[in-house]
Design brief:
Elements: H1 5-15, E1 18-21, H2 26-39, E2 44-50, H3 56-69, E3 73-77, H4 84-88, H5 93-112, E4 115-117, H6 130-137, H7 143-146, H8 151-160, H9 186-201, E5 207-212, E6 215-220, H10 225-230, H11 232-240, E7 246-249, H12 261-264
Parallel strand pairs: 1-2, 1-4, 2-3, 6-7
Antiparallel strand pairs: 5-6
Helix pairs in contact: 1-2, 5-6, 9-11
Length: about 280
């Protein structure tokens, strides 16, 4: 049964004024558009965290969507790279990132006399997720969860409303491409961003470039594995041009959270991390 858009609109009306953490992905895009249409432009501020972990193409798309939908929008720099705990890239990296996000959005929300809202939905709640917990502790609320929306509901209503984001491939921060324990650096994030952009330019959409030092491990959808192999010379050149020496194709294909395997071996308490 599809979740009700009326219920989401009712929840937003109860909040009154909101600051939407706007990443430009399917979830936050629907939340931003429905909030804008329900509450009015002056009651909704869409804020994009301009982090080194945000792909350049994603930041550009946030600006484009804000222009297309006449959203009141602002880009807000975040300072997670100044946090040594975040840079060390331990199992709590996502929590440190969300703490930095809320530190950046908090002043905006106070100035707006609004609540910070995130596009978290029921499909995100299968496990305890430290980033979501950190955001909630800092005062964020999740209207899509309250309204009973799953990822499928979000895509359904996005399509019904004519939003071009309805089938946008899932994205995660660039730092999620680094194995836990590999320090987060601007150079590594830039190499990942460039390599993924190069692969999208070749026509591949749902993908990850996992950074293993000199090796780029490519995850693409299972149906695209043959296409990568057929164009292996072209793919290899494109990825190597971004600073990698070796290019490996992961035969298991794309799957969110593949780097969490290293945590599972460390104990059950670590098998509860953000989707990557």
């Amino acid at each position: 049964m599809t979740a009700s858009l009326d219920v989401l609109q009712s929840e937003l009306r109860q909040l009154g004024r909101v600051v939407v953490a706007f990443s430009g992905g399917t979830d936050s895009a629907l939340l931003a558009k429905v909030a804008h249409d329900t509450l009015g432009r002056d009651q909704v501020l869409c804020a994009t965290a301009l982090s080194p972990s945000l792909a350049i193409s994603e930041a550009d798309d946030c600006r484009a969507l804000a222009s297309e939908w006449d959203l009141r929008w602002v880009g807000v720099p975040t300072d997670e790279m100044d946090d040594p705990t975040y840079v060390r890239n331990g199992a709590d990296r996502c929590a440190r990132c969300k703490t930095a996000l809320m530190s950046a959005l908090g002043p905006l929300a106070r100035a707006e006399e609004a609540r910070v809202v995130l596009g978290v939905n029921l499909s995100d709640l299968g496990d305890y997720r430290p980033g979501q917990a950190a955001a909630a502790e800092a005062g964020a609320t999740f209207p899509l969860v309250v309204a009973g929306f799953t990822k499928d509901d979000i895509r359904h209503w996005s399509k019904q409303l004519g939003l071009r984001t309805w089938d946008k491939p899932a994205a995660a921060c660039l730092a999620s491409r680094l194995p836990y324990g590999t320090p987060v650096t601007l150079g590594r994030l830039s190499a990942i961003d460039s390599a993924e952009a190069a692969l999208r330019a070749l026509g591949f959409s749902q993908l990850r470039v996992r950074h293993h030092g000199e090796v780029a491990r490519l995850e693409v959808e299972a149906g695209a594995l043959d296409a990568v192999l057929a164009r292996r010379a072209e793919v290899t050149r494109a990825v190597q041009a971004c600073g990698f020496t070796y290019v490996a194709l992961d035969l298991e294909g794309f799957r969110s959270g593949s780097l969490n395997r290293s945590l599972r071996a460390s104990g059950p308490s670590l098998d509860q991390q953000e989707d990557q």
